[in-house]
Design brief:
- By secondary structure, the protein is an alpha/beta fold.
- It is built from 15 helices and 14 strands.
- Strands 2-3-1-4-5-6 form a six-stranded mixed sheet, with helices on both faces. A four-stranded parallel sheet has the order 8-7-9-10, with helices on both faces. A four-stranded parallel sheet has the order 12-11-13-14.
- Strand 7, helix 6 and strand 8 form a beta-alpha-beta unit.
């Protein structure tokens, strides 16, 4: 199995390719990959929606290339496409700004460059169509920038372009591990994974896989069982485990089974720290107690999947929240790459663990909410709060537990 197939999308380097219509963004992508991944046409605006493609790009390794619509598009629909291009900056670990050598560096290029700088994204400017440029100095080209002349048509400097991007790539994307800093070699950790109709057939979901792998990497001993066998597993163990980690949907049953002296948390809470901002989301969960009749809660998931009967985001969470608050609430839902820029219609955001999102995008969503004064909390925290066990589930993170109200 190749490293491409082994590497989750959220852990790949995301490279956003930006520029005006017909600057040659799609042609540069095809030249870098040696494949016809993006449609190329002389007609302006061929790329009408952001297109993400996971692949192996040497010497970088597993990446996601994001081909975006032109940042000079026009009209109501064109302005929406430009907005979506800018939104792709939130997904990008690296930004490649493609400039048309014949047209020069225009105001749209400068505006995009300023936004890339504001977001502190490592970037490179590629001046494309060097083979056709009448001048080696396009009008308005900024001085002192990391600029590389390339030709998607002839292949000039395409290898250097990939090398320069590889040099800019972040070496470590995660500020915190999933669990490695909370266990020691030979610690037993019980992972509770319900196998019901909502579980994917024949496999574990990504957070479960990644947690097991990290425990193995640090020499701990993962013990995996269903919630229905948990009591027997605990009774059969020669000593209490260091920790029990459960799927959030089984929190209530697992909390009743696991003795109080054994630390308990969920995959979702672990990922709140691993990919987001644990303390901000702990503060946000208290908003459940301030919800009023008629308030709207946004439930946002980072992936798209087939909704089943009893779906966590659209069925179970709304039911638990309504039962906990006793209020008549409205719920809105987003999934995948959708996340509203304007959160003012919502009194609270409840977000998944973000296992399919990159760190940059997950943290962007949390900052969006914080900047607009809209509380945001993680699925696992909200479920734990509605079950009355949030303080216990945060026991392995005492600093965060200390932020709980009451």
């Amino acid at each position: 199995m190749s490293s491409l197939n082994q590497t989750p999308s959220g852990d790949r380097v995301h490279i956003g390719i930006f520029g005006r219509r017909n600057a040659g963004k799609s042609s540069v992508i095809n030249a870098m990959t040696g494949q016809s991944l993006s449609i190329v046409s002389e007609v302006k605006g061929t790329t009408t929606d952001p297109v993400q493609k996971a692949m192996e790009l040497l010497p970088l390794g597993p990446v996601v290339l994001i081909d975006t619509p032109g940042i000079d598009d026009e009209g109501p629909l064109g302005r929406e496409r430009v907005r979506r291009s800018y939104q792709m900056l939130n997904k990008s670990d690296l930004a490649l700004l493609v400039v048309d050598a014949e047209a020069g560096f225009l105001p749209e290029d400068r505006a995009m460059l300023e936004k890339i700088r504001q977001k502190k994204i490592p970037y490179l400017i590629a001046v494309n169509k060097s083979d056709a440029a009448a001048s080696r100095e396009p009008d308005g080209l900024p001085e002192g920038e990391d600029i590389l002349w390339v030709s998607a048509k002839t292949g000039e400097n395409i290898s250097r372009l990939k090398e320069r991007l590889a040099a800019l790539a972040p070496q470590e994307t995660h500020e915190f591990p999933i669990i490695a800093d909370k266990v020691q070699p030979m610690d037993f950790v019980v992972l509770v994974i319900p196998i019901d109709k909502a579980a994917p057939k024949g496999r574990l979901i990504l957070p479960q896989q990644q947690t097991i792998r990290e425990l193995l990497d640090c020499g701990a001993v993962p013990v995996v069982c269903r919630n229905t066998e948990l009591a027997g597993v605990l009774a059969a163990m020669p000593a209490p485990p260091r920790l029990v980690i459960t799927d959030s949907q089984a929190f209530h049953q697992v909390a009743q089974t696991v003795p109080q002296e054994i630390p308990l948390t969920s995959f979702s809470i672990l990922f709140s720290r691993h990919k987001g901002d644990l303390e901000e989301q702990v503060r946000g969960v208290s908003a459940l107690d301030r919800l009023r009749d008629g308030d709207c809660v946004l439930i946002s998931e980072g992936c798209t999947h087939h909704r089943q009967c009893g779906d966590i985001g659209t069925v179970k969470l709304p039911a638990w929240i309504r039962q906990y608050t006793g209020k008549e609430l409205a719920f809105a839902h987003t999934s995948g790459g959708e996340f509203p820029e304007d959160l003012s219609p919502y009194r609270m955001v409840v977000h998944c663990g973000g296992c399919m999102l990159g760190d940059r995008e997950m943290k962007y969503r949390i900052r969006c909410a914080a900047d607009q004064g809209v509380p945001i909390a993680n699925y696992g925290m909200v479920i734990a709060q509605t079950q009355g066990i949030l303080r216990r589930s945060l026991g392995i993170f005492p600093e965060a537990a200390g932020l709980l109200e009451g």
